[in-house]
Amino acid sequence: MAVSTFYIPSVNKIGSGCLAEAVSSMKDFGFHKALIVTDSILNQLGVVDKVSKLLTEAGISSVTYDGTAPNPTVENVEAGLALLKENQCDCVISLGGGSPHDCAKGIALVASNGGKIADYEGVDRSAKPQLPLISINTTAGTASEMTRFCIITDTARHIKMAIVDKNVTPILSVNDSELMIGMPKGLTAATGMDALTHAVEAYVSIAANPITDACALKAVTMISESLRKVVDNGGDEQARENMAYAQFLAGMAFNNASLGYVHAMAHQLGGFYNLPHGVCNAVLLPHVQAYNIQAAAGRLKDIAQAMGVDVSAMSDEQGAKACIEEIRKMAKDVGIPAGLKELGVKEEDFKTLAENALKDACAITNPVQGTESDVIELFRQAM
């Protein structure tokens, strides 16, 4: 077994109502002024006000950047950075789902390392830790509040840059499921399927290890038990909390075992057509895993078992096929579109999408290493 390194924020608060305690604990860091990075919807809903009031009580003043796009861009990072410098902020707080977290990571990394965010595309390109980042999560999906992954769209090149860097890991992550209660059905489904994709890709990854395996399988079980419930009834507090834990476990798995072709391909769809990341993952997941059977049938059978399928009488191949069926069933049950055609994806773009997918940092750990024509075929099957 190769040497494993395990990355995670040093402090992680999880559970219903943990926000106040988490913000209060920020006093100990000695911060004076925070840049809150969020989106306009959370600002309109009053969630930003709630956090800034808690910060004031902790003796920390704040200024808000709420311009984060659903697929955060280089321009978002630059705008947030300008506001940070203008107000001499000494820390960054991301509030929301993956989009604000990734945008905040970009801002905090460039704030301390200089240059432009594109300089850090790839793995561990930065020299210094980013400005301290505290990530308050409001969705159960991306796990960006606790990972070393930062995905920023380069609008000029129409691609999503994958920045995988230990220095973008937040110092504190907060998963208060009370903040997730109001999440709409579509977002709940997409982010939940994103978390399932993280767990599945981490489990079949060539960089998997016993720690990531344990996290991935537990995440799969919890998502299988809770995602449908919470999509049907957004106010189900127990299911919301279970999903908060599940997506965190999936994050622990992929933050250390990395991902595979599903993410490498989904990043291209998001960058090219500005599509929702979780939906792209959900559509691609069964097709890529069917392709992976040739190298990972036994592992996919384990996932089927974690999803509640009785695999005791099945061969590895049968178990793997049962896993793919179960994934399709869950995606259908939570209302995920049937194929990429519904999302406006065009066949003439497959070559460019496949070329860029193979250059994505996530492609390296897929259990089967394919050619450009293999990846084009996967896009075609997912239509």
Automatic annotation (TrEMBL):
Keywords: NAD, Oxidoreductase. CDD domains: PDDH. It comes from the Bacteria. Residues 13-176 form the Alcohol dehydrogenase iron-type/glycerol dehydrogenase GldA domain. Pfam families: ADH_Fe_C, Fe-ADH. Residues 188-383 form the Fe-containing alcohol dehydrogenase-like C-terminal domain. One of its GO terms (molecular function) is alcohol dehydrogenase (NAD+) activity. Its cofactor is Fe cation. Gene3D superfamilies: 3.40.50.1970, Dehydroquinate synthase-like - alpha domain (1.20.1090.10). It is an enzyme of class 1 (oxidoreductase). PROSITE patterns: ADH_IRON_1, ADH_IRON_2. Its EC number is 1.1.1.103. Belongs to the iron-containing alcohol dehydrogenase family. This is L-threonine dehydrogenase. It comes from Proteus vulgaris.
